[in-house]
Every structure is written in structure tokens, then in C-alpha cells.
Amino acid sequence: MSAGLSRFAIVSALVAWTSTASMRVARADDAIPQTLAEAIEMEAKDALPRTAFYDPPELLPAAAPGTLLRSEVFDGYDLPKGATAVRILYHSRALNGSDVAASGVVLIPGGEPPAGGWPLIAWAHGTSGVARMCAPSLMKDVEYGDEGLMPMVAAGFAVVATDYAGLGTPGQHAYLDKIPQASDVIYSVPAARQAVPTLGKQWVVIGHSQGGIAVWGVAEREATLRDPTYLGGVSVAGYMDTEAWASDPLTDPETAMYWPLQAFGIKASYPSFDLRRMLTPAGMSVYDEVTAKGCYYHAYFVSRDAGRKKLLAHANWAAAPEAQQYLRDSQSADKPIAGPLLVVAGDDDKSVLFPSLRHSVKHACHIGLPIEFWHRAGLDHDPLMYEMTPAILRWVRARLDHEPWTGNCPATPRGAGTP
Fold first, then answer.
1. pLDDT on residue 22
2. If 0-12 CB within 10 Å is exposed, 13-18 middle and 19+ buried, where does residue 44 land?
3. Residue 4: pLDDT above 70?
4. Torsions phi, psi of 160, nearest 5?
């Protein structure tokens, strides 16, 4: 096996986390605030001050994407014992290809790095919000905490966690557009190596939800870049058929926040988009609060309450030219990718439509993409990330160790490939 942690070591390191997985999920469910006031209080307790570190030069110096602008050691996160963190600010690329600054953080396990450097995961986070304050590196738990992220560090992996451009840094966050988010992930890797020389040369990407979509963007881009240090990706609960999602929107009040956030993402990606084409008057009435005054929990409560008034316009908003292009940007499972790519889905997911994921996997198999599909029955959106992290990390370790890989097409959804 290559330098780094063995599978046995990973399992041993995760015992403390996995043996109480159901307890952690229960605590997470109990921790969901019950009122908007509680949501605001919870976000305030987790928030870290945004300092001048996050302010790039008004005119960025000419540099290749992935070039580090600055870094700083930061000790304000809730990390596994002995772990350390280094914030990074680096050059990325916007949707239109222009130079843009992105921020993030490198999480480094405790102890001495193995020969060859720390095994490296590039982490693509799920929805945190769209306001600048909603950068995960501006949260004490780096947004995800025990939900997959800190177990990666506890298991001996270094993690470079991008914020995505527009979160932390100035500018509009192109929410759910996988093209710029894939850039932010890819270019975080060389920037992290400049800031932390003890990182290994090879890497795997993992993303959940919004980040699961970004992982497909990474895999597509790597098919062109042919970076020999990229060894594969894991997309957890990430939509592939965005056009189908738009035509069959989720109607549960618990997921209502996605519509004003997505309207923001379309507008950030294509500024000529008319928000009123997508949002009802009720949607417009909460738009500023959802997108500017708080993060995930704040948006959740404001949108859930307003969701009963139907935030999404009945008109065919997806027919707008800007919306059509935005949806095409993130359409996946239909283009060449660098593999292998592991797709993980739960069939009780309230935030993404499992039948749509299953259909996309079937199509990806049909056109011969190098994918592997894990279906877990009875798991919702966040419990899926909690539950599957140990198995995902074993899969990642196998890729970093260059073990042989085969996908499980055409055995698509009935549990084939489930570890």
C-alpha cells in the first residue's frame, strides 16, 4: 500500500465516531432550531468574525488559477484533538472565466505526516447560504462538523475545504452552478499545497448536496485537464438532472428555501435574469432576508413559513434564457468524466429526488461513464452523509493506494454496490 493510513487504521480511527453514529444523528436532529430566533442565535454562536484576510486586492495581481494570495494559521475551529487549520485565499475562475478570489481552509490531522505527505481530500460543501457571511471557514464547525468533515480529519486525511467564491470573499455566489464551483474546488488543491507543504501529491474530491453537484463538475473538467494527481471523486446526494429538477420541484415546506436561493444563483450567474420570473410576490417579500441576512437555518425558517404561500411562481420560470443556461451548466451524467466517480444516494432524501438520481445513474451507465453507485435505503439527505462516511473513506483510501477499481454498471439501483 502507498504511504498513509491503512484501511485498518482508518477503521480504528473512526470507531469513536461510527460507534455512536445514530446518537450523533439524533443530536443533530435535536439541535435543529425550532424558531427563527433560535436559528439566529445558533448561527451567531457558530459564527467567526470576517477579518481583512478575506478582502483580496481590489485589482487581483495577474496569476494562474490556484495561485495562493495569502494564508494564515487559525486556531478558532472545533477540530479533532491535535488537528490544526490554515486559512487560504487564492485565485480561482468565475463562470465567465475571469480571475476571482476564493477562500477556504486546510484542515491538517494531528501528529507527523506519513511518508509522502498527508493523504488529501478536496471537500465540496453543501448549502450554507449565499451571503458572504455564510462561508464555512467563517464558522467554528466549518459548517459540517461531525457530518463527514471532522471524521475525515480524525481518520488521518488532510482536507482542503473551499468556501466557493462569493462566500467569504466579495462578489455574488453563483449558487448551484457547478462550473465555477468546480473551479473553486480544483484550484483549492494547488493553493493548499503552497500553504501546507506536508500535503500529499495526489487527491480525491468528496462533495455533499451542492458539493455533490460540484463533484460532477470536477470530474468533467478533469477529463480535459488530465491531472495525474486527481484519482477520483465521490458525489453524495448531488443532483445530476437539473432540468428535471426544475420541471418537478420539491414542494415540501421544509425545502422551500432552495427556491429563493436558486433564484439568487441564477441572477449571480446571469445578471439579466428577472427574479419575478421565478418568485411569487411572497417569494420576493422574503428574498432579501433569505439571501442577505442569515445563512442556512435563517433561510430555512423564513422560507418554510413563507413556503405555505408558495414561493415559486406558477409560470414556467425555467423557460427564461438565463435559467435555461444555468440549468444546462449543471446538467451532469451526460458528458465524459475522469473517473472513477462514486455516486451515493438515499431513497428517503427530502432534498433531492431519488428517482431522478437513479435515472441519471442509469443513463451514465448506458453511455459508459466510469461510475459506481451506492444506494442506501431509508436515509435522508444529511443522515446519508453521516452514515456513509466510514465506507466512503475506505473507498477514498483504496483510490489513493491505487487499488484496482471496477464500477457496478448495469446493476443500478437495488442496493448493488452497497458496502
1. 34
2. exposed
3. no
4. -105, 115
